[in-house]
Amino acid sequence: MPVWLREHRWRQTLTAVFLSLPLRGARATPANIFCSEQYLKVSIPPFLFEAILYAPIDDTNSTAKIGNGNIFFTLYKKEPAMWDSLTLANADKEKLQYLREHAVLKAHEKAKEETEAKKITKQEHKKYALEATMKLEEEERKRIEDLKEKERQKVAKELELWKNQQKYGDKYKSIQKKGELHQEIEPLKERKSEKMNKTRIPNEGTSKTRLKSTEGCHDSCSIFSQNLKEEQLPAPRAAATIKVNFTPRVFPTALRESRVAEEEEWLHKQAEARRIINSDLSELEDLKEEEKNPDWLKDKGNKMFAMGDYLGAVNAYNLAVRLNNKLPLLYLNRAACHLKLRNLHKAIEDSSKALELLTPPVPDNESARVKAHVRRGTAFCQLELYTEGLQDYEAALKIDPRNKNIEKDAEKIRHLIQGTMQSS
After folding, report:
1. What is the C-alpha to C-alpha distance for residues 343 and 375, in angstroms, rounded to an integer?
2. 3, 4, 240, 401: least CB-packed within 10 angstroms?
3. Where does the record place its TPR repeats (predicted)?
4. Distinct helix (H) and strand (E) counts, the chain
């Protein structure tokens, strides 16, 4: 049975109502508060506060602040007026039930409308992002095409210039060769004329034949020397392909810079993880892609735990552990669910597994180690194993010596142990 909270203080102005509700040591979250136009409910097990308001309020702008052991509500009236009381007086059970169901139904409809609006907004954002991406890609493609066209024009100009240079070079070489031949022939003619002037010619026919023979000899000699010059040029290089073989590597680093033992261990763990996931493929086929993400499942379990759905949270953590059994927070959160469900032995197992994974102890995991010790110690104490529970609480105090709540609980356990020893 719930414990009804009757104590509250309230005051009002013409446009607003200010309500203060004590928590009595309970810990409240926004999920424990429900407010509509004329219905207010605060459910913090085992405490319950419920009120049918005197007149409608603006539930969209109204606020609730949690702090200093109280919940402070600021409720803005829809119509400026002074209320005779906070709640609606002289209302029978049927009317209260109708107002309660109407408020819940209206809240569901409002949540549905907000979900649809968010869905439409998300689709519009996706559409805008897609259009912007396509526009950027089109601009980038156009820029690349322009660059290609410029490069093509540049290469065409360079090729045309090279062809003209080659053409002019060939003409120059042919002119140069003709000049060299002319220079070789001129001195030969001069020498021949000198010889003919010095010597007598006995027979004109014989001299002509000798002259022709000498001219042919010199011509052939000059052609032979030109052929020798051309043969002395080196032959062009032949094309070839060099094959280079590399050692096959899984990791991008070179073999001389790697740690073979650590890499083999990592590959073995990856293969083992893939084997475990592949063995459960028949059970995971119906799941969505995000439901196969351990982090997404952890967040879903946290939300279910906050709403009081401890069995649903345990199922979410179980699936996350099957996908990745190396996350200590999964075991730590599942231990909290088992404590709520009174599965004390499972809570001890999960807390111990979380402490095993939270090694080595570093400042970043201090908070998680404290929670693991406290939850395991709580489970031991509920099993009346006070000595083991006290050891866990003392270990938590060593990590966080300033935590007064843990110190108080440890002192209570010490008194219980002393009382048990005296009675025995």
Report:
1. 12
2. 240
3. 370-403
4. 11, 8
